Amino acid sequence: MRTAIAFDVYGTLVNPLAMASHLRSSVGDLADRFAELWRTKQLEYSFRRGLMRAYQPFSVCTWEALLYTEKAFEIVLAEESRTMLMQHYKQLAPFPDAQPGLTSLKGDGHLLAAFSNGEAAAVREVLENAELLSRFDDVISADEVRTFKPDPTIYAHALRRLGQDANVTWLVSSNPFDLIGAKTAGWRAAWIKRDPRAVFDPWGVEVDLVVSGLDQLARQL
């Protein structure tokens, strides 16, 4: 049986903070901070909706987080600008190590799945625009079970889709909350720690592997 590896998408394969380049013409020097807060609130809204059992798709969380960030910085973007930013969110730049890393793992014969809080169609579009979609055997979305990572329901759903047992399935992510969710569900986990200053949550949960990029992952596995 092939090793199954599920990859988080936003923050692991493509970079949400790259939205700063599209924001600069509208918000100037605030672009980096705006992109960071937008991403933070996007995740917060998904967590809150998951806990409340008040599901709305990830794209709604992204839209509402954009509106919040405008208010936080006392900026009012034109409706056309908001629409354009949401379109750019489907064209996020891949991290430089994503394509060589996935290509190497695919060549080794592993079963690869994109595994995201985003809706499947949106995730496919993001990966297609980043020239990564062809590396994957499947795209698995939290939208299919109407909740968000790190809800255990999602990890169980992914295992059913992959036809794998948890203890032989890997999650690869840059997001500690996702890795802790997977480990708690019995998976193996690899942390992509691109920023050496990044801190893993001190919950007493240890990942199986830490690498600085996806291009190192094939060698380690």
Largest sheet: 6 strands, parallel
As residue ranges, the low-confidence spans are none
Helix content: 40-55%
* Number of spatially distinct domains: 2
Going by CATH, the homologous superfamily of the largest domain would be HAD superfamily/HAD-like
Quickly give the CATH architecture of the largest domain.
3-Layer(aba) Sandwich
Helical/strand content category: alpha/beta
Shape call: globular
Q: Output the radius of gyration.
A: 17 Å
Strand content: 5-15%
Strand order of the largest sheet: 3-2-1-4-5-6
What is the count of helical runs? 9
Task: For this entry, give a set of tags.
alpha/beta; globular; 221 residues; Rossmann fold; DNA polymerase, domain 1; 2 domains
Written overview of the protein:
The chain folds into two domains: 4-14 and 93-220, 3-Layer(aba) Sandwich (Rossmann fold); 16-91, DNA polymerase, domain 1, CATH 1.10.150.240. The protein is 45% helix and 12% strand. It is built from nine helices and six strands; from the N terminus they run E-H-H-H-H-H-E-H-E-H-E-H-E-E-H. It has helices at residues 20-27, 31-52, 58-72, 79-88, 98-107, 120-129, 152-162, 176-184, 217-220, and strands spanning 4-7, 111-116, 138-141, 169-173, 188-192, 209-211. The protein has a six-stranded parallel beta sheet with strand order 3-2-1-4-5-6, sandwiched between helices. The relative contact order is 0.17. The model has no long low-confidence stretch (mean pLDDT 96).
